[in-house]
Write a structure and sequence with these properties.
The structure is a homodimer.
Chain A (H helix, E strand, L loop, with lengths): L1 E2 L21 E5 L1 H4 L7 H17 L6 E5 L2 H13 L9 H23 L5 E3 L3 E3 L12 E7 L1 H11 L2 E5 L3 E6 L6 E2 L2 H9 L3 E3 L6 E6 L1 E4 L6 H11 L4 E6 L5 E2 L7 E2 L2 E3 H9 L8 H15 L3 E5 L3 H5 L5 E4 L1
Parallel strand pairs in A: 1-16, 2-3, 2-13, 3-10, 4-10, 5-11, 13-17, 16-18
Antiparallel strand pairs in A: 5-9, 6-8, 7-8, 11-12, 14-15, 17-18
Helix pairs in contact in A: 2-4, 3-4, 7-9, 8-9
């Protein structure tokens, strides 16, 4: 299904001297998709080859590629260790946990991709992302993190640590944290320099380390949506393309109904209408479509939602969901 | 005491167009010195101000500053959590632990220094460091990591995990790991680009993530000396200065004897002679002097060993130990 009009060719150059050829591409992908088993970091090596093949398809000839990875399973594993030792070792805050996973996932990606892609510099830049201390998300935490708890334990954490928790029927209680909107990428200049030199840059991992700025920069207990951070990075870098990889080949109209149909492309206005109508689930496809809408609106260029497997076909517009300005 | 001749003015430019004014400075400092209590990351905020004042003294006018931090206490804390959950959650290897601390310490430094130094871009680049798989250190592990164990536990780890352990009288057994020599900085190009733009770059943290390359890059269970990595970085970046901060104001002749005397400066040949004579303890001052010797020999420029407190005076040659080519 093709909803709405075709892509416009509006152009919004921000970096002097940059041409369409060397504009970077921004690619976001989930912590689940490429690092399926955080307990076996070795298993990632096997996936790196398939991933590298996909990256070679989208690496701009003279431009950089910025990779934004998720970190859900990895943060979950650190939280398990923290919970088990909470009585002896003071727990770390979520901003620090995100920074640790930027370290470990960034390293695994750098190392395994260097084994497959030898003609490009590859490096990971730790990334802090500014959020608004008054973001409404702070009074309405929705993002689940870490393990499931019994109702007794949940109550104890609520009383002692001030956590918000939600009950997931049949599984127990789970901590939820705020998911504020990303406003600025603090390390954007370093990322841009590297991308402009054609490097493969890993940045904004786990959505970025969330910080607020009231007088001073401070870390906050929150998790930023990585797709929205990827979109912000793509806008600030004036990227030529934003690609969001997920575990389905694209977005669907009427998802989960008998009339379910893949959307091959849609314009921003249509995407916004469908978002408002609740066509895309809030925790999964919703933020991805929203991220694409923001990028398309700001740059006048197209974004793609697809899976690793469908990427080659999607780049030829034979699969995936293209969102056009 | 001034041992040996004064600094020569030999010059070894490697980066075209670079001048003495904009050559970067490389500064190494211990995980103990600036992050004294890893259990209270907040305590670091208070130290950041004093540290930032010192950094402003050495920031080249138009050049970058590369910071190489230690990570001993931080790795120790992660190892405590790993040991406590070893029966439930598979332990991570040391290369991954180093990458996690590059994430967390890099973030804390980036954030707190941004509050103090507002006219420079500040960013941390994850850093892998190549070591030789045949480095003799792999058959002679000497670097202690993690907690102390009873002799029973030590034996179990020796049998089950193949660890090497040493007994520290009165405290118990401790794991020792290889400390191979750093050969190459894999992300040198990204670090160099950022430094060349005058950025403050955090790199090579914890001595770098140790990897070997036999067919493919692989992580190894080892810890690289951060001062030797800082020296290698300074050589590869053709830095204008290498400064190593420690908890004493400088190196001493006859350290711990009644004739103990601070060394205000010495040339490379003298430093090498004193190193060979065992004048500097192997685990502490030895690698620092060795790191300076390597930098001075390769670049023909001077290196400084001093403490954070003595740095202002040392820069005016009123304190600290200068090692000159």
């Amino acid at each position: 299904m093709n909803v709405g009009r075709a892509s416009s060719s509006r152009c919004g150059l921000q970096i002097p001297g940059e041409t369409a050829v060397n504009r970077p591409v921004v690619l976001a992908f989930g912590g689940n998709a490429l690092l399926p088993d955080p307990e076996k970091p070795g298993s990632q090596e096997e996936q790196a080859e398939a991933f590298a093949v996909a990256l070679k398809l989208i690496l701009p000839k003279d431009g950089g590629l910025v990779l934004v990875h998720g970190n859900g399973p990895q943060v979950g594993m650190i939280l398990l260790r923290i919970e088990a030792t909470r009585d002896r070792i003071p727990p770390e805050t979520l901003d620090i946990l995100v920074s640790e996973t930027q370290g470990s996932i960034g390293y695994l990606l750098c190392r395994t991709l260097r084994n497959e892609i030898t003609d490009r510099e590859i490096a990971a830049v730790l990334t802090q992302v500014l959020v608004d201390a008054d973001d409404p998300a702070f009074s309405n935490p929705t993002k689940p993190v870490g393990p499931y708890y019994s109702s007794e334990k949940a109550e104890a954490f609520r009383d002692l640590a001030g956590w918000s928790l939600v009950e997931v029927p049949g599984r127990g209680w789970r901590r939820v944290v705020p998911s504020p909107r990303p406003l600025e990428i603090l390390e954007i200049s370093t990322i841009a320099h590297a991308a402009r030199h054609g490097h493969l840059v890993i940045a904004g991992g786990g959505g970025g380390i969330p910080v607020t700025e009231k007088d001073r920069l401070q870390g906050v207990e929150a998790v930023i949506d990585k797709d929205l951070t990827a979109s912000l990075l793509a806008v600030r870098l004036d990227a030529g393309k934003l690609i969001i990889l997920t575990d389905v080949p694209g977005a669907y109209a009427g998802y989960g109904t008998p009339k379910q149909e893949p959307i091959s492309s849609m314009d921003v206005a249509t995407a916004q209408r469908l978002l408002k109508a609740g066509e895309f689930p809030p925790g999964t496809m919703g933020p991805k479509v929203e991220a694409c809408v923001q990028y398309c609106s700001a740059t006048g260029r197209s974004a793609l939602i697809t899976s690793l497997e469908a990427l080659p076909s999607a780049l030829k517009r034979g699969s995936g969901t293209w969102i056009n300005p």
